[in-house]
Design a protein that fits this description.
- Helix content is about 80%, strand content about 0%.
- It has about 450 residues and is mainly alpha-helical.
- The protein has one domain.
- Helix 1 packs antiparallel against helix 2, helix 3 runs antiparallel to helix 4 and helix 4 packs antiparallel against helix 6.
- The longest helix has about 40 residues.
- The chain starts with 6 loop residues before the first helix and ends in an 8-residue tail after the last helix.
Length: about 450
């Protein structure tokens, strides 16, 4: 923390970040619980279904992270406009972001339609392939809705209004539970579809969330002065190009980190059903834990962008970042403690298969080990997004996650035969290096700003 930051002002920043982040964390946690619901229903349906959902989820989220990350250019852009008092420019930018989101969604739909042909060349176990293919064929129908939902959500987040993210996240969860159960097991006259039913249920939930968010933005008095849907704007290349210039490196960075975990899942899928199912349990729990620092990082992006737009200078930017860091360190300590003390009980919720449970419990201890570096790297990356510093962090992420994390994981897990445990050691190594590099980059970038407001 800067010695020039009065404790009272820092405490106020911590409170402001916490208030902004709480609905984001809750909304992300609800999103994470969607994966939990899919995994639990799949696990109760059978080990083969759980393994198929593991591989299918990995193949869905790996490409999905690029449009999701690209649209993350919207919160800092909106928050800087808001901080600078240029609210009249927000609606035109938002309308262009919807065109970008739709284009990205349609591209991803086409990609997922072809991705199932890669299951055999990737070496995925033959018993897993049919369920993974059915899952992808079902969930792909929700992709355009999901990208549009992210554009609307990031607009709201950038304006310091994060409650809809929480409410719609839990609303989608409440819809998915009965849909997933009915489609997977064949209830209420529906055919039993297993993993494919879970994919289709997820797609229906995505359309419900996007429709509800659009209706809220159109009717809400909070957003009425902005005129978000006041007129129809055709696609305009200059603002879309600016969003892509800032957002594509974010998308690649997010994909680099998420891809490390996802490709790890796909490589473990080559080892068999038990290994794939155990990894799915452990990575799902770790993903739930990650929702907390991820939400805090998004709130920090908005606070940093607002401080920069308002002319807060180096002190304002660093105060916003260190407030987020203080919250992340506390929440990561709690998550690590829960994983260390409760790993057996957590795994028992997912499966009764003794072999799967034994491996999954050991992997959760590895997850506990990377809580602190994971929190630090995502918070630092969020602060850099607030400064619109995205290109160099993309390169740092590529080196940390793939040059270090994947290399070590593949060497230990596949080369030396340590299996999933070796792959998870690689995850830890990649996150540690990313935390060091991202934190150093933030200090360097923020150090170039004038010390105080001009």
């Amino acid at each position: 923390m800067s010695l020039h930051t009065p404790p009272a002002r820092f405490g106020g920043e911590v409170r402001a970040t916490a208030v902004l982040a709480a609905p984001l964390v809750a909304g992300h946690f609800a999103t994470g619980l969607i994966g939990f619901v899919d995994s639990v229903i799949a696990g109760r349906h059978g080990t083969a279904t759980l393994a198929a959902v593991s591989v299918g989820t990995a193949m869905f989220w790996l490409p999905m992270m690029i449009p999701m990350g690209t649209l993350m250019a919207l919160p800092p852009s909106v928050s800087q406009l808001d901080g600078a008092g240029r609210r009249d420019a927000i609606a035109p930018l938002f309308r262009q972001s919807l065109w970008l989101a739709l284009a990205l969604g349609l591209l991803l739909f086409a990609f997922l339609s072809l991705a199932t042909m890669a299951l055999a060349p990737m070496g995925i176990d033959e018993s897993i392939r049919p369920g993974a293919r059915d899952f992808l064929h079902g969930i792909r129908w929700g992709v355009p809705a999901l990208t549009l939902y992210y554009a609307m959500r990031y607009l709201s987040d950038g304006l310091h209004w994060t409650l809809p993210t929480m409410l719609l996240g839990f609303g989608g969860l409440l819809l998915l539970v009965p849909l997933g159960w009915a489609f997977a097991f064949g209830r209420f006259g529906l055919p039993e579809m297993g993993a494919g039913g879970l994919g289709l249920a997820s797609a229906l939930m995505m359309w419900a969330q996007a429709t509800a968010f659009a209706a809220y933005l159109a009717r809400s008095k909070r957003f009425a002065p902005l005129g978000l849907f006041a007129r129809f704007d055709p696609p305009r290349w200059p603002p879309i190009r600016e969003l892509l210039r800032t957002g594509l490196p974010i998308g690649v960075t997010v994909a680099m980190e998420g891809g490390l975990f996802i490709v790890t899942a796909l490589l473990i899928g080559r080892l068999g059903q038990v290994e794939a199912a155990a990894h799915q349990i452990a990575i799902n729990v770790a993903s739930l834990c990650f929702m907390i620092p991820f939400g805090l990082a998004e709130a920090t992006t908005v606070r940093v962008g607002h401080a920069l737009g308002a002319g807060g200078g180096r002190e304002g930017v660093r105060r916003a970042t260190y407030a987020g860091l203080a919250l992340v360190l506390g929440t990561q300590a709690f998550s690590a403690l829960v994983l260390v003390l409760g790993h057996d009980a957590i795994v028992a919720v997912y499966t009764a298969d003794a072999a799967v449970a034994a491996l999954a419990t050991s992997l959760l201890l590895f997850a506990a080990a990377f809580q602190f570096p994971d929190g630090i790297q995502v918070l630092s990356a969020g602060a850099l997004r607030g400064l619109k510093d995205t290109r160099v962090p993309m390169l740092l992420a590529a080196f940390a996650y793939w040059g270090v994390g994947m290399a070590i994981g593949a060497w230990l897990g596949l080369g030396l035969g340590h299996g999933p445990r070796g792959m998870w050691i690689g995850l830890i190594a990649g996150l540690v290096v990313a935390a060091l590099l991202m934190a150093a980059r933030f200090l360097r970038t923020s150090g170039r700003l004038p010390r105080t407001a001009q």
